[in-house]
Structure formats: C-alpha cells, structure tokens
C-alpha cells in the first residue's frame, strides 16, 4: 500500500519533533571534517552518520526524519545494516537531497540556479525503492546591492515547482527550500531587507507551485528565518520571531501542513531560541519546526572528533541539541 503524501507530510512535522538535515554533499562534508582535522573518506562519512542515526534516544523522541545524501542512502552500517534501516527502526522517515547544487546562472552575474531536473523522474523512482519518502531541493538567493534580480528569483522558483510536481508524481513529499542566505557576500544587509526579499521569494514560489499543480497538503516548506545578514547588527530574538512569523503568515497558505526552518549559519543557541520564541508567542495555521544541519550537528561533530572512543560523547551532544530544538518546536525551550 502506498502511504498518502498528506500523511507523510504530517508525520514529518509531528508534535515536538523535527528533521535532521544530514545531506551534506561530498564537498560540504569535507569542509565540516576539515574543522576536526579528519579526512573525508567514505568510511569516515559512514561512521559519522552511523553515530548520529544510532543515537537512539534522540532519534526516537525528537527526530521525525533524516535528509540523506545519495551516498548515504546506499550505505550500510559497520555491521552491514543499511543506514536507512537504522533510521526506520527509530521510527524516523528517510529522505533524500535530489538537487545537484547551485550553479552560476547564465546572464546573471553573481546569481545561481539550482540544477538537477534532468532525469529526476527516474532518480525519484530509484530513491523510492531505496526507502525515501520525502526529498529536498534547495534554491539559493543571495542579497547584495541591487540583487537578487527578478530573473533569478523567478527561475529558482520555477525549478522548485517542477521538482515538487515530479516528487508528488513519485509519491514522495517535496521539501521546498528557497534559502535567502544570511551568510552570503557581503552579508551586511538588514533584517528589513531580508524580510522584503524573503516575502518576494515566497510569494513567487507559491505562485509557481500553483501553476505547477503542486498539492500544498503534500509538501513541507523549508525557509530561512527573517534575520540580519551575518555581518550586520543582530536583531533581538523577539524581533526575529515577530518578523519571521509575519512574513510567513503573509505568504504561506494555511493548507501547507508544516514549515521546517534551515539554520543557515545561526549559532546553535540562536536557532533554538528563535524557533521557541515563535512557537511560544504566536498562533499559526501550520506546524513550525526545525530541519537543521549545522545547528543540530556542530556540537556532536566536535565532541566526536573522528575518534571511536568519543562516539558516546558525540551522541550525547547530538541528543542535547535535538532535545533543545524539540522543546523549541512546542515553544517550551528556556535558556
Ligand atoms: P543548515 O541548517 O546548516 O543551514 O542546513 C540545512 C540544510 O539542509 C540546508 O540546505
């Protein structure tokens, strides 16, 4: 029996749970491993992800699903168990990043378009067979003087919509991720400029999703928060929460079951505090939770350090951040 898209989407944003983004591409995971002086070999990547997915308490109680990378969805744990099985045994849903990355957009200096639509129908069918029940595609929008351009916003929104329609055809829930970068260059934009661009991007994305006949009940939105650029002043937690919720309320239809934020370069504590403040202070038509990469993994990666004897310490660090973010998903996190 095929599961209904709507039911999978609801399970992805179950009360007090969120998503673990562990879908770093080979290039990105190398950058993360460089910070602990570890070589990015296939075995080290496997050991690291196995450590996370075998954090039983964290996975069972706080994580609804995991976004995997192509290599990981095919990998087995050291004892031969497929990593997807370990995730499923904790009640988690396996997901897969299907975009092929942001590449320079012809005719638009300084802007990017996300590639990966060619052959996507066939790849989705294969991923379904490998256990994936949701997918992710990230469009990247960078703020600088005079940018983004309308052309870049529109083309990225169109690609997201074509991807989402293909996912639903394959019975896979699309995570639609249009990221307005906080850590792009120069990164000195204000929170109000971020608001304006995020509102514009989300309006455009939902118009394209409508034109592509995407069923909103069967998708999850993964947006950035409305926040100052990394090299600008830092707005208060209350201001980020208020502006983010206002921006989402004016752009995201109430039929979307859930919104799961990316962390985007915020510190671990900031990402938790912002999410909790939103859930504590506002009534919203959708579930609001996390789909963090760095903000869930940074402490665990450091505690592990690539050493087998530190696996338990890495798992404790991961469990702590997962629990803090799960509390934030119901507005119950306290400093
Ligand atoms: P960060 O939370 O580290 O931004 O990663 C989430 C993600 O999946 C980005 O595509």
Mean pLDDT, rounded to whole units? 98
Unique ligands: 1,3-dihydroxyacetonephosphate
- Topology order in helix (H) and strand (E) letters: HEHHHEHHEEEHEHEHEHEHEHH
Helix content: 40-55%
Specify the biggest β-sheet: 8 strands, parallel, barrel
Keywords: Glycolysis, Lyase
InterPro entries: Aldolase_I_AS, Aldolase_TIM, FBA_I
Organism: Phyllobacterium phragmitis
Pathway: Carbohydrate degradation; glycolysis; D-glyceraldehyde 3-phosphate and glycerone phosphate from D-glucose: step 4/4
Your description of this structure?
With 335 residues, this protein is α/β, with parallel strands linked by helices. Helix content is 46%, strand content 15%. The chain has 13 helices and 10 strands. It has helices at residues 5-12, 26-34, 42-53, 56-62, 70-73, 83-89, 120-129, 150-169, 191-211, 237-249, 268-281, 294-304, 311-328; strands spanning 18-21, 63-68, 93-97, 102-104, 112-114, 134-141, 173-180, 220-221, 258-261, 287-292. The protein has an 8-stranded parallel barrel with strand order 1-2-3-6-7-8-9-10, surrounded by 8 helices. A two-stranded antiparallel ribbon has the order 4-5. Helix 4 (56-62) runs parallel beside helix 13, helix 10 (237-249) crosses helix 11 (268-281) and helix 11 (268-281) packs antiparallel against helix 12. It is globular, with a radius of gyration of 19 Å. The model has no long low-confidence stretch (mean pLDDT 98).
């Amino acid at each position: 029996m095929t599961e209904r898209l709507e039911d999978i989407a609801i399970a992805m944003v179950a009360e007090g749970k969120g998503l673990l983004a562990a879908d770093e591409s080979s290039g990105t995971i190398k950058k993360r491993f460089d910070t602990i002086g570890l070589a990015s070999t296939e075995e080290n990547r496997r050991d690291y992800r196995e450590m996370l997915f075998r954090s039983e308490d964290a996975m069972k109680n706080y994580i609804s699903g995991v976004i995997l990378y192509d290599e990981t969805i095919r990998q087995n744990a050291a004892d031969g168990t497929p990593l997807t099985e370990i995730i499923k045994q904790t009640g988690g849903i396996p997901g897969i990043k299907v975009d092929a990355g942001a590449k320079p957009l012809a005719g638009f200096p300084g802007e990017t378009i996300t590639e990966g639509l060619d052959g996507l129908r066939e790849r989705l069918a294969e991923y379904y067979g490998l256990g994936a029940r949701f997918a992710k595609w990230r469009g990247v929008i960078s703020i600088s003087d005079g940018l983004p351009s309308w052309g870049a916003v529109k083309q990225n929104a169109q690609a997201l919509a074509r991807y989402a329609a293909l996912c639903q055809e394959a019975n896979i829930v699309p995570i639609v991720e249009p990221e307005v970068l906080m850590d792009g260059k120069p990164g000195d934009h204000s929170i109000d400029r971020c608001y304006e661009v995020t509102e514009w991007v989300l309006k455009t994305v939902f118009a394209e999703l409508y034109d592509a006949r995407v069923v909103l009940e069967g998708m999850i939105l993964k947006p950035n928060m409305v926040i100052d650029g990394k090299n600008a002043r830092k707005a208060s937690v209350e201001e980020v929460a208020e502006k983010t919720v206002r921006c989402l309320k004016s752009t995201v239809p109430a039929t979307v079951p859930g919104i799961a934020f990316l962390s985007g370069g915020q510190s671990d504590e900031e990402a938790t505090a912002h999410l909790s403040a939103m859930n504590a202070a506002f009534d919203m038509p959708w579930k609001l939770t996390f789909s963090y990469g760095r903000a869930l993994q940074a402490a665990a990666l450091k505690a592990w350090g690539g050493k087998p004897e530190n696996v338990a310490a890495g798992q404790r660090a991961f469990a702590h951040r997962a629990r803090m973010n799960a509390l934030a998903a119901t507005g119950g996190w306290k400093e």
